[in-house]
Amino acid sequence: MTAAESEGDGLLRTVVPPGQVRRLFRFCDAHGWTLLVVGAVIGALPPLVGLEPGYYMTVISEMFLFTVLALSWDVIGGQTGYPSFGNMAFFGIGAYVTAILVEDFAVGFPVAMVAAGILAVAFAAVIGVVVLRLRGHYFAIATLGVLLAAQQISRNLDVTGGASGKILLEVPTGTVFYYLFFGVMIAEIAVVYYLTNTRFGFILNAIRDDEAKATAMGFNTTYYKTAAWMLAALFTGLAGGGFSLFNTFVDPQTAYNGAWNVELIVMAFLGGSGTVVGPIIGAFGLHTVIEVVETAFVGWQLVLLGVAIIVTVIAFPQGIVGTLREYASTMEYYERGGMAAEGTDDEEVTAGE
Amino acid sequence: MAVTQFVVNGLLVGALFAAIAVGFALIWGVVDIINLAHGEMVMLGGYTSYWVLSLVSGNAEGSPALFLATIPIVIGVLYAVGYGLQRTLVSRVIGTDIFLTLLVTFGISIAIQQLAIRAWSANPRSIQVSFGEPSFAVAGLVIPKTKLVAFVGAILLTAVLYVFLQRTRTGRAIRAVSQNDEAAALVGIDVEHTRAVTFGISSAIAGGVGAFIATILRIQPQMGLIYTLKSFVIVVFGGVGSIPGALVGGLLLGSVEQLTVGLVSSRWTLAVTFLSLIVLLIVKPNGLFGEGAEQ
Asked: Which residue ranges form the domains of chain B, and what is each CATH number?
């Protein structure tokens, strides 16, 4: 720990002692499902008590949407350790599937959503065979290549409306989308939270920490990481499927939005990747900031995004949750004997909240 | 037009891609990061040349000599930018998670790109270099003079880099750091400084090529990512740390793109580039030349 960090700690220590933070973590760990249900009830209330479709409802719906994207990224990027730069490919495929089915084939919106999810998963299965064999730099760039290739192909096909995209006129009201994205978000949080405490989740973490060892222990890592990749694709595809109608418009630029592609990674990262609450906190927090900047300084939000990435990564690489967790465990360090006990402690396995 | 004409066009442009990729590979090998902001250096180089020319001649037009005179300025400016970036930002994440280095350079890329849009608008621009005769013909093949100048310029930049790395003291230090940074530090090489110099040189070459690109294609603030990815394709093809490999890769990529333009449609060039990246990573993730990467 550097000197600067210790000073920051000192300030924080007077306001919130580490013991309390630790108690908060313990409470959250113990009552995860209760908290999720409480959150679901609170989140479902606003439209019932008078939130009208409009600016605020749109912004909140977008927050749900980004939470889905960030959490999906975290399943593959944070939990499994495969830093994908191409998650928006699933989003774009989902968006185009619903747009084409609803507009050209007069399919009902719910059926189109299901199709969007299924196709995104199928695409992930095919692409996963190729890209999941790669690691590190190669995986990151290959996924970015997949995203850009998908964007270019959508731009050139007739069925997707080419570069001008598709305009969707008959769309449900804002309230429908509020509950749609909210429902997808809650479902994803529940699934991911459930998985972190299962064998499946632990194996994903094992792949992240040392894939060779995980393989040596007899796990078919290809199977597990492909499953995680497809899970990420499912929810990202569903989010995209809802988005095209929510946005009433889809074209290669919005469907495979390069800025969002980075935003969702930064959200997961800023909150704390490899945890369940991290991406949620990150998505709500960063989207609020971006929304404020967007209204106050039009056109500067992407500059801010770039700066936010640099600052986060350099100053704050563990994210909010990771940093707090470390802070909370500082007392434990001394309780267990401090320096004398160092080296005997096994590194804590962060499996999520 | 005949197929050979497309290949010639491809080779002319491909040398530019190769020179950009050589710098990209140099950073990859020496600093051990994938510099996702590399394409932005190309963009900044193009704009630097554009603005210097505008300052001198009132608009972005000029004789070949005047344009070539801006190249040293571009190289100087971009060297400073690259050196500064490495010293202030990138050096802080070296040795940590691979993903952090990717994110930092991506952040730099977005910040530079967006600031460029704010400063110079998103409109594409180009530098007009006027020749008496715009092109000449050899054996039935049309060769535009601007493209030939760009080709020669890019090859020269690559060759100078090669000689620099092989013959000079700094070049040897750079190669030493790329082989083993701890051993290099033990024999008295300032590793941090050498890495920053490497970053500066790579950026300078990318910038110089960017100036040439401004004369034959168009420059705009968001052009960078495509060049970064092309560099990646070329380096994966040629192998990390192999300048001849990068040269072959660049010329091949240029030819493939121009053949796509000629035989299919110019709309599909980028799709072909990205698909060839994916195919290449499946078939040959360690490159056809060189010893391959650490993964």
From this structure: 3-283 (1.10.3470)
